[in-house]
Amino acid sequence: MNSEVKKMVAAFGLLPHPEGGYYRETYRSAVQIAQNALPVGFSGDRVLSTSIYFLLEKGNFSAFHRIKSDECWHFYAGDPLLIHVIENNGNYQLIRLGKNIEQGETFQAMVAAGAWFASETAPGGEFSLVGCTVSPGFDFQDFELAKAAILATRFPERKSLIKRLCRQ
After folding, report:
1. Residue 64 contacts residue 160 (beta carbons within 8 Å)
2. Of the candidates 69, 65, 18, 64, the residue with the CA atom closest to the CA atom of residue 42
3. Cross-strand pairs, 127
4. Cα-flanking dihedrals φ and ψ of residue 155, to 5°?
5. What HEC string does the chain produce?
6. Rounded distance, CA 80 to CA 32, Å?
7. Is the peptide bond before 123 cis (omega within 30 degrees of 0)?
8. What pTM, to 2 d.p., does this model score?
């Protein structure tokens, strides 16, 4: 862990995240959405919205996973973050989250509910500090970590990417 990453982990009170990297929840809405008002598939009530800091460093990655809510990503500091998105219909999108607009990077991007996605600091980078806002709010009951063999069978054209960015 380089000194800049150590400083951010300490300053923001970041903890290891199960999918890779470090995080800390910074906001959890007090407003509840009843299960019967949510889309099919939610197993209970959810808060309106949640937000986290998320930090990845060189050599680490956020493994392919999906959640039942939309997730808006925000770039804060460091090097560009690559977000690999595989939609349920097989469409692939590479989102470059960062500050270099002329290089196709963006400060903010959305990953739709149910899409499989993984992220990593761009090659040559040291770390990426980003934020994620989830609505309806994040709940680990809505989180599914991909199994590489199963996901690669479903999306064989992305097999090498899936195997590289899965932990199981």
Report:
1. no
2. 69
3. 57
4. -125, 70
5. CCHHHHHHHHHHCCEECCCCCEEEEEEECCCEECHHHCCCCCCCCEECCEEEEEEEECCCEEEEEEECCEEEEEEEEECCEEEEEECCCCCEEEEEECCCHHHCCECEEEECCCCEEEEEECCCCCEEEEEEEEECCCCHHHEEECCHHHHHHHCHHHHHHHHHCCCC
6. 34
7. no
8. 0.95
Does the CA dihedral 149-154-160-162 come out positive or negative? negative
Which pLDDT tens digit goes with each residue over 46-85? 999 999 999 999 999 999 999 999 999 999 999 999 999 9
Residue showing tokens 């270099």: 100
Q: How confident is the model at residue 118 (pLDDT cuts 50, 70, 90)?
A: very high
Tell me the C-alpha distance between 18 and 40, whole Å.
26
Q: Which residues contact 7 (CB under 8 A, 6 or more apart)?
A: none
Using alpha carbons only, what angle is made at residue 96 by residues 103 and 19, rounded to the nearest 5 degrees? 155
**What long-range pairs does 30-36 form, CB within 8 A, spacing at least 24?**
33/136
Listed in sequence order, the residues at least 6 apart from 84 whose beta carbon sits closer than 8 Å to its beta carbon are 64, 92, 93, 94, 117, 118, 119, 120, 161, 165
